[in-house]
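Hi R.,

Here's the chain you asked about this morning:
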Amino acid sequence: MPLIGRRGFVAGLAGLAGLGEAGGSARAATAGAPGAARPGGRTPGALRGMWVATISNRDFPSRTGLTAAQQHAELTALLDLAVRRRMTAVMLQVRPSAETLWPSPYEPWARCLTGVQGGDPGWDPLGTAVEEAHARGLELHAWCNPYRVSTQPELTKLAPNHPARLHPEWVVTYNGALCYDPGLPEVRRHVQDAMLDAVRRYDVDALHWDDYFYPYPVAGQSFGDDASYRKYGGGFSDRAAWRRNNVDLLVSETSARIKQLKPHVAFGISPFGVWRNASADPLGSDTRAGASYDDQHADTRKWVKERWLDYVVPQLYWNIGFAAADYAKLVPWWDAVVRDTGVRLFIGEALYKVGDPAQPAAWQDPQELVRHARLAREHPGVGGHVYFAAREAAKDPLGALTAVLADDPPRRARDGA
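And the predicted structure, written out as tokens:
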């Protein structure tokens, strides 16, 4: 039965949904495999997750240059917060770009730790996070960004030994940032090796990716992959099909390598919430928004149907009734996509929008996320929610997260277990 990591907090979901052992890239765990919840762990059957973003010091660490002891204290405080908010999993961004929060042989230390890329922080944030999360009965999902090299455009600002500086031919500058070229097989192998190093070396529960594949399109700009397309694009109907195949290869190969390396470790992706609009594809959703298939060349529906993933967390960062992308229409669409696949479905929630005066009126109502949770409970394929992000989970804008928890008592009590 597919697990979300080896802790088994949500191991019962597949059975509850009537799903067999074929799902989750066939990454099933036998009865004798490590899969029981840790002491204090949540009842199997639900996941509540919290993203912890490190890019630009959004959630952790609070600023660069803190001592190792100060960073350690901030990290454990975030894990304590997750426990107080009745989370079962923390998605910690350990590779915010082509840099890491562990001592990697592939890439330099992340700039967010010391303010200098490659600067040794004097401790191991990922290793510590795994140990401290498990001690609290939490899963730790290693959140990585596959292709982003840097949010600024100068190679010379990267660490001297950075792979992008050693291999500038791997890099494309787009919209004032640096990206790896997904069309190069050597890039695909490098980013897999870099991310799987975390899986190999640590007792993580999952490898988790966000929604950045090919960069979001910017009007008037083109992604500079002419050379790799000329070299490798033969046999494809057009460049878009070739690009989708590049990303498909990254996903499918990573899935297979995790299965070979540590079958008990899950593989999950949190894509943009719209795969395709029905106006472009009859299989798409009743939406009028950007689409991962067309914009990021990420065929997220295919990844689920091919069972390359153990779980998917579409970022449904819109309110119920939002005209272009209605939460109430997208939840049932994703529920239908995962049906009979064994791939777990969790919904990404925009906690960061609550109380923001720039957002629509629905986000000024603390009950909006409660309505999301109630609607999701009507769909058997939905196994929980993941909230963006830790900073908002701490502040609890308008008391919205407290309201969600009050409306959803612990499953053990609710089910009479």
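Residues 315 and 348 are 4 Å apart (CA to CA).

Let me know if you need anything else.
M.
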